[in-house]
């Protein structure tokens, strides 16, 4: 059991029942509710708390506002076997990503590269959560997604947001645990800074820039009028590097799907780029794994600086996932407090702490 009075551990089954019930009560089809719930809980399992069940109240608000739909079908804009382009028309992002995953796992069996782009789906959640089905098959996967209705990151030296936090994820198979990269091209996600603002806390560093162009640790500048912006990775000295990766994400997940900023969309849709490569159709799977395992071994062999811990991307997340599947998922008290009124209105029982 958790010793932190602000958290408790819950079974995956109990949390799943709560989330699926609330989503279905709000009007989401059962298959869509299952997909959304699985991705949120996996976000918590991997330690991405901002995109775990903490996001469920936001999803419920968006459903009530008509920003997440559960009816209709995916619209195919293009499909030549190796590539498919879809328009999702605000269907639940987690369900759409499940369909894209199934499609790519099927199509990669007889080709080297397979790609899906998605225009205008709803929020897909934690990117890292989508990587394991591919790495478990020995496949290399790249995923990036962004929201063309949000502009919270300025160009280096700028004061007006032109892109947003633009996460990029990659799953790299090894002969042991995969390498799971999932990081924003800015210092942090919009949800991260909103969390600090809601809690009334200052940031650990001057990760934002006020509308006056001065770096600050005050998260409320993003809510100001005019708003501040999030610094790109590298911040003041080297932010042009992070901003460059942010532009790459825009090209892949906005321009390729054809769902971009020109039409000034609202803040509730996303564009997605998902691509899978089969190393067996390049220099060969064994050669690929030999090289990756050698690289991993070089990281492991480093004695490290005094007091430092050397980890590969995804290592801590996978350890947290295994531990929480065994011992229960850690959920903050404030998350259930936000869900309690909705559960009471629909007579949905809250899960019991372990």
From TrEMBL:
<keyword id="KW-0560">Oxidoreductase</keyword>
<comment type="similarity">
    <text>Belongs to the LDH2/MDH2 oxidoreductase family.</text>
</comment>
<dbReference type="InterPro" id="IPR036111">
    <property type="entry name" value="Mal/L-sulfo/L-lacto_DH-like_sf"/>
</dbReference>
<dbReference type="InterPro" id="IPR043144">
    <property type="entry name" value="Mal/L-sulf/L-lact_DH-like_ah"/>
</dbReference>
<dbReference type="InterPro" id="IPR003767">
    <property type="entry name" value="Malate/L-lactate_DH-like"/>
</dbReference>
<dbReference type="InterPro" id="IPR043143">
    <property type="entry name" value="Mal/L-sulf/L-lact_DH-like_NADP"/>
</dbReference>
<protein>
    <submittedName>
        <fullName>Ldh family oxidoreductase</fullName>
    </submittedName>
</protein>
<dbReference type="Pfam" id="PF02615">
    <property type="entry name" value="Ldh_2"/>
</dbReference>
């Amino acid at each position: 059991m958790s010793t932190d009075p602000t958290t408790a551990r819950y079974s995956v089954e109990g949390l799943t029942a709560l989330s699926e019930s609330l989503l279905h009560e709000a009007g989401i089809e059962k298959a869509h509710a299952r997909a959304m719930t699985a991705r949120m809980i996996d976000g918590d399992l991997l330690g991405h708390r901002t995109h775990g069940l903490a996001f469920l109240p936001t999803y419920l608000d968006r459903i009530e506002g008509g920003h997440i739909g559960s009816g209709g079908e995916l619209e195919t804009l293009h499909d030549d076997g190796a590539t498919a382009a879809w328009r999702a028309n605000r269907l639940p992002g987690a369900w759409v990503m499940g369909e894209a995953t199934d499609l790519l796992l099927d199509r990669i069996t007889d080709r080297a590269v397979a790609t899906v782009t998605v225009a205008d789906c709803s929020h897909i959640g934690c990117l890292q959560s989508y990587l394991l089905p591919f790495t478990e098959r020995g496949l290399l996967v790249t995923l990036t997604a962004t929201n063309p209705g949000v502009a919270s990151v300025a160009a280096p030296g700028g004061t007006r947001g032109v892109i947003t936090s633009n996460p990029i994820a990659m799953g790299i198979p090894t002969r042991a645990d995969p390498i799971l990269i999932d990081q924003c091209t800015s210092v942090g996600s919009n949800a991260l800074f909103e969390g600090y603002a809601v809690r009334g806390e200052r940031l650990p560093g001057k990760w934002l820039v006020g509308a006056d162009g001065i770096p600050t640790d005050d998260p409320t500048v993003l809510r100001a009028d005019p708003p501040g912006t999030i610094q790109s990775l590298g911040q003041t000295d080297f932010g042009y590097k992070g901003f460059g990766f942010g532009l790459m994400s825009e090209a892949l997940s906005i321009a390729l799907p054809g769902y971009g900023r020109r039409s000034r969309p609202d803040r509730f849709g996303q564009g997605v780029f998902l691509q899978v490569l089969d190393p067996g159709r390049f220099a060969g799977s064994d050669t690929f794994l030999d090289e990756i395992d050698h690289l991993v071994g070089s990281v492991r062999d480093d004695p490290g600086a005094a007091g430092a811990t050397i980890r590969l991307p995804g290592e801590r997340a996978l350890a947290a996932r295994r531990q929480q599947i065994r011992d229960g998922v850690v959920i903050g008290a404030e998350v259930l407090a936000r869900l309690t009124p909705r559960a009471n209105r629909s007579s949905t029982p809250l899960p019991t702490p372990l």
